[in-house]
Amino acid sequence: MPAIKTTALTKRYGGDVLAVDGLDLTVENGEVFGFLGPNGAGKSTTINMLLDFVRPSDGTATVLGLDAQADTDEIRHRIGVLPEGASVYDRLTAREHLEWVIDTKGTDDDPDALLERVGLTSEDGDRAAGGYSKGMTQRLGFGMALVGDPDLLILDEPSSGLDPTGMQEMREIIQQEAERGTTVFFSSHILGEVEAVCDRIGIMNEGNLVATGTLDDLQGDLDLGAPISLEVATVPDSLALERVEGVRSVSVEGTTITATCADPSVKVDVVERVAATTTVKDIISEDTSLEQLFNTYTNGERAGDEEKAETPSPEVSA
Amino acid sequence: MSTLAVAKKDFLDVRRAKIVWFVSSLYLLLAVAMFYFGQNNAEEPEFRNALQSLTGTGALVLTLVALVTAYLAIAGERESGSIKYMLSIPNSRREVVLGKFLTRSGVVVASILLGFGIGTILGYLWYPSVDLELLLGTLALTILFTLTYVSIAIGISAATASRSRAMGGTIAFFFVTTVLVLFGLVNTALGWIFNDVLGRDLSGEVLTFIEALVSPMIAFSRAFNIFLADLPEEAFQDQPWYLEGEMMIVILLAWLVVPLALGIWKFERADLG
């Protein structure tokens, strides 16, 4: 039985806004599934329908084999949720938050152990949450999601508000949970974190699931090419790198030359050609980045588009 | 079960809200003032009069205590998004509304009990006699009346998606059914609508009944007929059955149940985006 299954799931707002359009999505038991897409792609609406916060206009959703609308009580006993952009209770301490969730779920977790697990100190735990930073709030939310050792974790934008250390810790906890057999379903518009922890990813765009599969599957499907960047002392006038067989595109930014190759074996030829004309200071060779993949699916750009190589921003907003 | 877990957590939360402490203190201050001025410079101070001042003027303050304590209970959580934490764990939407109603009711009942407690102590200290029967009857009626306002505020809060709308709805309700009623404008308006516009030619008694239907404040003040019926000087002897105190209590009970039920109905169908 899949952990999450939606069939023709649709949400329409008013007459003409189609937030989610006939979504068929299956998340298998025990996998870490990254749910990607730019802001406004329908990720949160989908998650809200799984949690019965929002009712579908059409279609069905099951969570752990249970109907998302009819069996909310049992579902809520067995899952852990980190909602997106939800504030905690300003006047309650972290410990009181955790005790409340433990109480409601009827489990016997130790609040101190949970605090430590998500990186909050005991002193933090006794302070009112109204004085927390965004990152601490997010840690507390994560701690609440972990109460009762859930079978399924649904995390909506888990890394928002976290600094790089926090993001790293979050990834580690996700990996630990996955090793214990917990299914993890999380949404993100930040690509790096998905790459690091996900077994499979799904990409949403404008209410539709435009791709699903492992990272390798998706890269193979698209034939995006392999990028290589060379930092040089001076950029030669007549480089003519494009004429090297197997090079698809070349861009130059400052003293960095980036070439996209059809095949990774062509990278050697690129290095040799550049090294013959100038001094190479550094070589950065990458796999096809998820970001490139993502742009391809969400912007309708295909492989070989030169602009992609020149916009290496870690975040994509719609 | 879950209702109690919601209530327990909500109580921790609301007891730390300064605004609730502020309006509640206002009520307690009023209780002291009413019983002080009731006997100050009076040769034969009447406990009954002081109690009536506390319930009359106090009722207005209590509506505010109730509305302020309850109007953000659910709409506030929807706006801040914390409702998603609430509903991610085993709580149903109905349990959330009922749990919140319990705690907010608990807070205002605590204020009323304190106010009446102060009144009783001052009554024994400063007044020749204390009418315990009247005191307990008035207390019960005051609690029922105040809880209708909690129910209304929770109902509005459950039916609205943001703080501003909950506040707007609550103020509108308070203004029409409380402020305008106190100035007698609702009675005038009802007479104009039914008799002048619709030409129904309703008697003043029927209009008063309609006024009591739309305003818990009127129903509350008329419900006191129950305690005053044995007084010959009161002019409530020959009124129709639908203006009797018992009928007013039925109206108050309806105000206690209906807004809450409507709020739950609306909230269970809402998209919490």
TrEMBL record, chain A:
<dbReference type="GO" id="GO:0005524">
    <property type="term" value="F:ATP binding"/>
</dbReference>
<feature type="region of interest" description="Disordered">
    <location>
        <begin position="297"/>
        <end position="318"/>
    </location>
</feature>
<dbReference type="InterPro" id="IPR003593">
    <property type="entry name" value="AAA+_ATPase"/>
</dbReference>
<dbReference type="InterPro" id="IPR027417">
    <property type="entry name" value="P-loop_NTPase"/>
</dbReference>
<feature type="domain" description="ABC transporter">
    <location>
        <begin position="4"/>
        <end position="231"/>
    </location>
</feature>
<keyword id="KW-0067">ATP-binding</keyword>
<keyword id="KW-0547">Nucleotide-binding</keyword>
<protein>
    <submittedName>
        <fullName>ABC transporter</fullName>
    </submittedName>
</protein>
<dbReference type="Pfam" id="PF00005">
    <property type="entry name" value="ABC_tran"/>
</dbReference>
<comment type="similarity">
    <text>Belongs to the ABC transporter superfamily.</text>
</comment>
<dbReference type="GO" id="GO:0016887">
    <property type="term" value="F:ATP hydrolysis activity"/>
</dbReference>
<dbReference type="InterPro" id="IPR003439">
    <property type="entry name" value="ABC_transporter-like_ATP-bd"/>
</dbReference>
<keyword id="KW-0813">Transport</keyword>
From TrEMBL, chain B:
<protein>
    <submittedName>
        <fullName>ABC transporter</fullName>
    </submittedName>
</protein>
<feature type="transmembrane region" description="Helical">
    <location>
        <begin position="171"/>
        <end position="194"/>
    </location>
</feature>
<dbReference type="GO" id="GO:0140359">
    <property type="term" value="F:ABC-type transporter activity"/>
</dbReference>
<feature type="transmembrane region" description="Helical">
    <location>
        <begin position="50"/>
        <end position="74"/>
    </location>
</feature>
<keyword id="KW-1133">Transmembrane helix</keyword>
<dbReference type="Pfam" id="PF12679">
    <property type="entry name" value="ABC2_membrane_2"/>
</dbReference>
<feature type="transmembrane region" description="Helical">
    <location>
        <begin position="139"/>
        <end position="159"/>
    </location>
</feature>
<keyword id="KW-0812">Transmembrane</keyword>
<keyword id="KW-0472">Membrane</keyword>
<feature type="transmembrane region" description="Helical">
    <location>
        <begin position="249"/>
        <end position="267"/>
    </location>
</feature>
<dbReference type="GO" id="GO:0005886">
    <property type="term" value="C:plasma membrane"/>
</dbReference>
<feature type="transmembrane region" description="Helical">
    <location>
        <begin position="20"/>
        <end position="38"/>
    </location>
</feature>
<feature type="transmembrane region" description="Helical">
    <location>
        <begin position="101"/>
        <end position="127"/>
    </location>
</feature>
